[in-house]
Write a structure and sequence with these properties.
Helix content: 10-25%
Strand order of the largest sheet: 1-2-3-4-5
Structural class: alpha+beta
Radius of gyration: 15 Å
Largest sheet: 5 strands, mixed
Number of strands: 5
Distance between the termini: 28 Å
Strand content: 15-25%
Order of helices and strands: EEEHHHEEH
Number of domains: 1
Shape: globular
Length: about 140
């Protein structure tokens, strides 16, 4: 499975043998607990903030990995578990569905459905329409 990360918007695009999936991490406004370091400084959607969710180091207080979110927040813990399980399902079967998040359809150019990963994970059609219009692809 090849992976291509589109880092400008904390968005990701996964290519599997049969499907393309895209996901967004809109941390800045939607997670109930903003990303923050021990210093309390607001970080927003920083590079690599999704790593604690991908490997579910949120659940391991002894992990040496940097966690940008409150490990004790139940919403953060649930999203980390479900996202990690979703990626495991995708790695095992090529299909990310059935691991705790909404049914994630394969991406197509007409619907442009995207899994939004925040306090209330959901599917949205063409969430980046305004930016795509700038490139003539809206």
């Amino acid at each position: 499975m090849a992976e291509l990360a589109l880092s400008t918007r904390a968005s990701y695009l996964w290519l599997t043998a049969e499907y393309i999936y895209t996901a967004w991490w809109p941390w800045v406004k939607n997670l109930p607990v903003p990303a923050n370091a021990a210093s309390g400084k607001y970080w927003g959607a920083t590079h690599a903030c999704e790593m604690a969710f991908t490997f579910n180091t949120v659940a391991d207080p002894d992990s040496s990995g940097f966690v940008f979110h409150d490990r004790n927040d139940p919403t953060v813990r649930e999203l980390a578990l479900n996202w990690s399980n979703t990626l495991i399902a995708m790695a095992k079967t090529g299909n990310p569905n059935g691991a705790g998040l909404p049914d994630w359809p394969a991406y197509d150019d007409n619907e442009r459905q995207c899994l939004i990963l925040d306090g209330e994970p959901r599917i949205e059609s063409n969430p980046d329409a305004d930016h795509l219009k700038l490139w003539g692809n809206g």
